Prior knowledge:
Layout: E1 6-12, H1 19-23, H2 26-29, E2 34-37, E3 43-48, E4 51-56, H3 79-89, E5 91-97, H4 110-130, E6 134-139, H5 145-158, E7 162-165, H6 182-190, E8 194-198, H7 219-240, H8 243-246, E9 252-255, H9 261-275, H10 288-295, E10 296-300, H11 306-311, E11 318-320, H12 334-342, H13 347-361
Parallel strand pairs: 1-5, 5-6, 6-7, 7-8, 8-9, 9-10, 10-11
Antiparallel strand pairs: 2-3, 3-4
Helix pairs in contact: 4-5, 5-6, 9-10
The structure holds manganese (II) ion (MN).
Manganese (II) ion binds near residues 10 and 323.
Amino acid sequence: MTFIWANSGDSHLVEPDDLFRNALPRRLAERMPRSVKDADGRWETVFVDGQQFRRRVPRPLLDDEGHAMVGRSDRANDKALRLHDLDAEGIWAELVYPSIGIWTSSIRDPELLAAGAQAINDWAIEYQRYSARYVCTATIPLLSVESALGEVARAADLGFHAVYLSVVPPAGADDWTSAVWDVLWASLEAANLVVGFHIGTEPHDASSFHGNYYRGPGGALLNYMETTYGGQRAVSKLIASGVFDRYPDLRVIVSEGGATWGPFVADRLDEAYRQHASAVRPRLRRLPSEYLYENVYASFQHDRSAVAAVTAMGWRNVCWGSDYPHLEGTFGHTQKTLHELFDGVDEATRRRITVGVFEELFPHVPPAPV
Ligand code: MN
């Protein structure tokens, strides 16, 4: 079996327990997101800024001999050992998000969020400085436009090439359709920072799905499905409100949300734009689908249909992602997954999805070995 190298459009660092205690005054550190597992390890409580959320701890399935059927590496936070993991899996460069840091979208105090984002970013950039294979995302505090702009400027100075934005702004902030964010899009475009919308990052308030988990029959599958829609909504909001009209060089990737939704959403938006033209505000310079096909990117990990988004539907901005080191990801079976996805796929398409799209977004990254 040949060894396939692929860049990952979806990876994570895992914040160490003492990150916020070391970086922030105690009164702030204790309100940053943290997880406390129950004694039996089956449930955890996530504490965020005075709020508490209970959730079942994702656990690997075990085979008959007690071995994990899907992998989860605990070496992700060692800058050198992580590269060994990547080398063994065939993962070259990665777009790297936080883990518990994703819960910062539920913070309600602007001062806490701004300080916490700085702490996360100062920690994350050290990985990128260690290896150009790590393309870390800067967390942007979104409770005020001023603090968002300040952190974008700091992130650009620190050398980030991408930012992480929650698919919905925090409670109390304006939605992505609002013109108050135009200065944010302008600064991201000017600094050539790619926007990473990672799915499942809605604030955990009652108005988002996170406040309304499905329980009972089918709950696990339904909740997993729900996590995917937020990325599609975020992209639709940017297209429909004319963000890409005004900032045509802005590029956005939806990480971990699959791929074939892209052409589907493009079709739906075009149909609405055409058939409901009298109600459409603002009018756009180009068709919604053109923005989706050109300004929007997506990463998938296992989806069998994803290659067809490129070959059969013509969306070229689809890349693979490992989700390393998370449980939904491919750690421990990356080569098997890549072969299942790409055996029999033509060379140009395989290269586009495994390495080309990532290199287009992040041309500074050294090319993957072939
Ligand atoms: Mn992920």
